[in-house]
């Protein structure tokens, strides 16, 4: 049975920046796969001449940083099963994105959640929403229908 590991590739004459990107992505992916008992595959920065005698066109024939990841193998029963698991695939994709964000120096944007409001019309709960436009629509609708009471309460 084949030992299944991650195999990242870059073009044979890839610039240092491409290799930095590869390393950042590779580190994140390996960290994720480690939880599934999957480790590195030899040289952490193979070049395409080692892999396919410089025949990987997406690496060789580009003018921008290009990295190719071979994360799992379908001919391995355990990894084949993982490749069918949506939760695993989502985690793998997130690890690739996190690696790319690290490589590009992107910071995670922290957004403050919008406050939620409950709209009650004539003692009947109508909606919980964070959208002021929906609240305004409900108030205008209530005024049009001449309802007795409209209350808006901010939820914690």
From TrEMBL:
Transmembrane segments: none annotated. Signal peptide: none annotated. GO terms for molecular function: N-acetylmuramoyl-L-alanine amidase activity. The keyword Hydrolase applies. The keyword Cell cycle does not apply. Keywords: Hydrolase. SMART domains: Ami_3. GO terms for biological process: peptidoglycan catabolic process. It comes from Laceyella tengchongensis. GO terms for cellular component: outer membrane-bounded periplasmic space. CDD domains: MurNAc-LAA. Residues 3-101 form the MurNAc-LAA domain. Pfam families: Amidase_3. This is N-acetylmuramoyl-L-alanine amidase.
């Amino acid at each position: 049975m084949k030992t299944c590991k991650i195999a990242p590739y870059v073009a044979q004459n890839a610039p240092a920046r491409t290799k930095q990107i590869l390393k950042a992505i590779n580190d994140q992916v390996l960290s994720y796969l480690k939880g599934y008992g999957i480790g590195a595959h030899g040289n952490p920065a193979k070049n395409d001449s080692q892999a396919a005698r410089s025949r990987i066109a997406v690496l060789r024939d580009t003018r921008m940083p290009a990295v190719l990841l071979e994360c799992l193998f379908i001919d391995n029963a355990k990894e084949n099963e993982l490749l069918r698991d949506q939760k695993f695939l989502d985690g793998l994709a997130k690890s690739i994105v996190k690696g790319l964000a690290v490589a590009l120096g992107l910071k995670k944007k922290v957004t403050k959640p919008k406050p939620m409001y409950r709209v009650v019309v004539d003692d009947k709960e109508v909606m919980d929403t964070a959208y002021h436009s929906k609240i305004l629509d409900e108030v205008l609708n209530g005024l049009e229908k001449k309802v007795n009471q409209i209350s808006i309460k901010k939820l914690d």
